[in-house]
Design goal:
Layout (H helix, E strand, L loop, with lengths): L9 H11 L6 E3 L40 H13 L7 H17 L8 E7 L2 H7 L5 H22 L5 E7 L1 H6 L14 H16 L7 E6 L7 H5 L2
Parallel strand pairs: 1-2, 2-3, 3-4
Length: about 230
């Protein structure tokens, strides 16, 4: 399953999906319910300490960016750094949901062979819609580091034999296909350089996952998912 399930809470997702596909699911997500119900929308708050960086995000509207001097960009990034390490919340949500998963498995609702699936987006799937263009390159390593910390905490808390991590490759798919709408801040306009850059950061992300933890890639095409609404231009 890809991750998002339009149901009210984790228990409902686990119960309903298990019942609907008995014996067929090897991995099950928590449905990304509550504040996470709209792909990466809830990640905008991660950058709230430096509001200058943020886009004026509106559903179904172009993602607009202003003009900033290099000094203004540096000041905005420095303000973000001074707020402390970024916290994505993906780790806390996964750990909380795993507690529900474990109780339901012990109760026999979930198969003992099933793994708990945690979805984590790539950095561009957050940076592109919520960070203004002049700040993206310098925000990228800060957010990537935050994602890696979350991945580490998930693996340090959830037993590896119970865990599967899905990397959501969303806006990256548009970059790879050379979309005229979504232009990456890397690659200098050279499509081959862009693809090499993407391979490097996806490999870095996979490299954060221990070898005894299952990992998969979810290629997310905008016309088939909430991504279309979230970053449509």
């Amino acid at each position: 399953m890809v991750g998002s399930v339009p149901l009210p809470n984790t228990e409902t997702v686990l119960r309903q999906c298990s019942a609907a596909m008995p014996g067929r699911l090897k991995r099950i997500p928590d449905g990304e319910t509550g504040s996470r119900n709209y792909f990466t929308m809830f990640q905008a708050h991660v950058f709230a300490a430096s509001p200058t960086l943020l886009t004026l995000f509106v559903n179904n509207a172009p993602v607009k960016s202003g003009s900033f001097t290099p000094e203004e960009v540096d000041a905005g990034i420095e303000k973000l750094k001074q707020s402390g390490p970024l916290e994505t919340g993906y780790d806390d949500a996964a750990i909380e949901s795993y507690g529900v998963f474990k109780k339901m498995r012990e109760a026999g609702v979930i198969s003992k062979e099933m793994r708990f699936q945690v979805g984590i987006p790539t950095t561009p799937s957050v940076i592109m819609p919520f960070i203004q263009a002049p700040f993206r390159a310098k925000t990228e390593p800060l957010y990537e580091e935050a994602l890696f910390r979350a991945i580490r905490k998930v693996q340090d808390t959830i037993p590896h034999e119970d865990l599967a991590i899905q990397i959501d490759v969303a806006l990256d798919t548009a970059f790879w296909e050379g979309s005229e709408i979504f232009k990456p801040w890397f690659g200098d306009g050279d499509h081959e350089k862009t693809k090499h850059y993407m391979v490097d950061y996806i490999v870095r992300m996979i490299g954060q996952i221990d070898q005894d933890v299952e990992v998969g890639l979810h290629n997310c095409y905008g016309r088939l998912s909430p991504l279309r609404l979230m970053v449509a231009q």
